[in-house]
Each structure stands twice: as C-alpha cells, then as structure tokens.
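Notes to self, Phage head closure protein:
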Amino acid sequence: MTKAINPSRMTFRIAFGHDADTGEINPNTGTPIQQFSADFSCWAGQWSLNVQQQLTIAGAGITNAVVFFIRHNPAVNEALQVQRGSDLYKIDSIAADDGLQNEGFDLITCHLVVTKHG
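result:
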C-alpha cells in the first residue's frame, strides 16, 4: 500500500505526545487543566485517500479524517496524539509497511480533535 511514497513529499513536522497537567487548576471545576505535551517529532507528509478509502472511513463514523505518512517508527502507537501546527489529532489506526521496517513507511489515520465548550 505504501510502496509508492516519495520521501521528498515529507515537507512538515508532526509531534506525537499525550495530555499532561499544566500545573493550573480550573477555578470552576477544581480539576487540573490538561494540555498537549510533545514526546517526540518527525518529518511527515499528507497522504491522499481514494474514493473507496474515503467511503470506508466515513462508514466507520470517522469525520475530519486526515492521513499522514512517516518513516516507520515503533514508538508510534494509537495511545498517542498527533499535533500539526495548532491542530490536534487523535490516532484512529496505523498501517505499517510490509517491507523492510527500517526503510518502510507508516500510514497514520487520524481525526481532528474538536474541543466543545458549552
């Protein structure tokens, strides 16, 4: 699936991380305020989905989907979040390349995290 990836399309960096306490307390609820904390980053590119893949994702109830590709990294897992610029994404699935792992690529399907206030 990822055999045709051109590494020169990896034009931006994405950060992988998790939510961590900021040390501040929400005065309304008394709970700690959480914010994204980056663990590591890597070069990435954006993968275009064909129509069948778009329909499959829509059928799974995933909206605001985006697919990034990166060099294979065993540290990337579905418990992490992805940040690109100011946008934060939750990982839905990771498709690893079936070739040599040190030369392979991973496709990371994510959806945009929308914070609702109110």
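- The radius of gyration is 16 Å.
- The beta strands are 12-25, 32-47, 65-71, 81-84, 87-96, 105-112.
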